[in-house]
Amino acid sequence: MASLILSFYVAATSLGLIFLKLGTSSGIPLRLTEGKLHFNFNFYSVAGIFLYGLSFMLYIYLISKHDLGYIIPLTTALVYAVIFVASYFVFHEVFTLVKIIGIVLIVAGLLCLNIQR
């Protein structure tokens, strides 16, 4: 059950971030102009806000049931890895050697943290 919740958390967080980025490509969805608040929401920004809110609720559940020293590095590393790959396919960002080394170090650090578990 915990791995299912963890998977939903990673998916909701990653998709939420991707949708928020897509939704803000034409500018921020909320701005103050001449003392008036203007909303510029589109499907992607609303979906991103919803998914990020859902991921927050799942995160609360995960940290309530697991050690912080275990769950925070695990979720952070998984989200980084998913976003790293998604940014290449969705936003056509460039994989550099430094980025690849960074992801490898994150995964290696995660493995080191879980050796003693």
Question: Which keywords apply here?
Answer:
single chain, 117 residues, mainly alpha, two-stranded antiparallel sheet, 2 strands
What layout of secondary structure does this protein have?
Layout: H1 2-23, E1 30-33, E2 36-39, H2 43-65, H3 68-90, H4 97-115
What does this structure look like?
The chain is mainly alpha-helical and about 120 residues long. The chain has one domain. The chain contains four helices and two strands. Strand 1 and strand 2 form a beta hairpin. The longest helix has 23 residues.
Overall pLDDT level? 87
Uncertain parts: none
By helix and strand content, what is the structural category? mainly alpha
Q: How many domains make up the coordinates?
A: 1
Shape: globular
Helical proportion?
over 70%
Oligomer: single chain
Distance between the termini: 19 Å
Element-level helix/strand string: HEEHHH
Annotation, overall tally of beta strands: 2
Q: Order of strands across the biggest sheet?
A: 1-2
The largest sheet is: 2 strands, antiparallel
Give me a quick take on this structure:
It is built from four helices and two strands; from the N terminus they run αββααα. It has 117 residues and is mainly alpha-helical. A two-stranded antiparallel ribbon has the order 1-2.
